[in-house]
Amino acid sequence: MAYENLENVKVEIRERVLVLTIDRPKVLNALNAQTMEEIHRVFTDARDDESVGAVIVTGGGEKAFVAGADINELAKKNSITGKETSERGQYILSRVERFPKPVIAAINGFALGGGCELALACHIRIASDTAQIGLPELTLGIIPGYGGTQRMARLLGKGKALELILTSDRVKADEAERIGLVNRVVPLAELMATAEAMARKILERGPLAVRASIEAVNSGLDMAQADGEFLEATLFGLLCASEDTKEGMNAFLEKRKANFQGK
Ligand code: COA
Q1: Is the CB of 113 under 6 A from ligand 1?
Q2: Is residue 181 domain-shared with residue 218, that is, in the same domain?
Q3: Are residues 115 and 49 in the same domain?
Q4: The domain containing residue 249 runs over which residues?
Q5: 258 in a domain, yes or no?
Q6: Running DSSP on this structure, what letter comes out for residue 147?
Q7: Whether the CB of 116 sits within 6 Å of ligand 1
Q8: C-alpha distances in Å from residue 14, one per residue of 47, 53, 56, 190
Q9: 108-157 pLDDT, tens per residue?
Q10: What is the pLDDT of residues 165-191, one digit of tens each?
Q11: Ligand 1 mean position to 165 CA, how many Å?
C-alpha cells in the first residue's frame, strides 16, 4: 500500500492533487533523516500512482515551510557521515526536481537551509506574504548541501546566489518575488488555494506534454543549448505520435475542450 507508515509528513490527495505537508511544527518542520526518507517514499509512491497528477509541498503549523535540515542531527556529523548526508539529500531532492508531474512549493513561512533547497527543487514556488527564504548554512560553518549552491546559482545567477549564500541573509516574500526566487506572492490565507488552482490548470494540459516540458527544461539546463534543442526536438517528435497530441489538435479544430488520456 502506498503512503503508509509516515510519521513526519502528511499526505492528502484531493482530486488528483497530492498535498504533502512536512509536519514537525515543534521544530519548524526541520528535515531530519527520517523526514527526508519519508519525502522520498511519498514521491516514489506518487510517481506510479495514476490517481495523482500533481504535488503541492507545504509546511505544517503557522510559522514555517521548513526551517532547514535538523541541526540536532547535523551537529553529530563527521566528514564521512556529513558527505553521505549531503549526497542522500541531493539524491532525494533530485528525485523531486525530476518528478514527471508538476511539483509546486507552497511556502507558508520560513524556508531556510534545507527547506529553501527543497523549495528550489520544486518546479514552481508560490510564497505567502509571511514567507522568509534563505540559506543560513554559513552561520553554522557549513555550506548548503542539498543542491542549494547549484540550484540557487542556476535560478538567480551567480552574483545574487553568492550574495545570499555568503551573507546568509533571509529575503522576505516581496524581495524573493522581485529577484525571481519565487514565482508569486499571495496572502497566507490564499496560499493553498492559489497553489491548488495552478496545479489544476496544469492538470488540464496534456500530461505527456507536461512531463516532456519538465524533462526538457531540467535536462536542457545541464546541456549545451544545441544538445538541449536536440532533446527538445526529440521529445516534440515523440509527442507528435501520441494520442494526446491528436486529441489536442482535434479539440482545437472542433472548438471543444481536449480530453487528454496520457497516451
Ligand atoms: N533544526 C532543529 N531544530 C530547529 C530548527 C532546525 N533547523 N529550526 C528551528 N528549530 C527548533 C528550535 O530549536 C526551537 O526548538 P525549542 O522550542 O525546543 O527551543 C523550535 O524549533 C522553534 O524555533 P525558534 O528558534 O524558537 O523560533 P523563532 O521564531 O525564534 O526563530 C528561526 C525561527 C527559523 C529564525 C530559527 O528557528 C532558526 O534560525 N532556525 C535555524 C535555521 C537554520 O539555520 N537552518 C539551516 C539548517 S542547515
Answers
A1: yes
A2: no
A3: yes
A4: 207-253
A5: no
A6: S
A7: no
A8: 16, 10, 11, 17
A9: 999 999 999 999 999 999 999 999 999 999 999 999 999 999 999 999 99
A10: 999 999 999 999 999 999 999 999 999
A11: 18
